[in-house]
Amino acid sequence: MFRLFALLLMLASPALAQQGVQINFGQSLRLDGSALEVTADQLNVDQATGATEFSGNVLAIQGEMRIAAQSLRLEYAGSGSGTGSQRIGRLIASGGVTMTTPDEALEAREAIYSLQAQSLEMTGAVMLVQGQNMLSGERFVADLRSGSGQMFGRVRTIIRME
Question: How many helical (H) and strand (E) elements, i.e. helices and strands, does the chain have?
């Protein structure tokens, strides 16, 4: 209901469309502590930084979320436990990024997902589909903790009224 209300507000006010539109997200875009399975054509590990980069036909799966791109870089943050183990701090996907869940589908040229901040930023011809509704723009920023997001840059939407 909130999504429809926010999208209707955008249609009613062009000023809102220029400033960004609030949209609502469920928990489906949040990565959790379960295993992340990644397949790709190539893997490179930077020993100096500990970053891992997958390239070529990348597919990352965690639970019901799928991320497809041409490259996916995993940047690690220390756990602080003193054991030397590391946790993924950020995922940076580029080259035709597609994120899908049972509830949403997003496409963009690049996506930066911060696990610590639980934020997602997608740039470059962003398209978001929720159910039968579509929202597009040039930049999308989401706070996955609060379930809110904003789309910027010549925002366009299609709302099915049936």
Answer: 2, 11
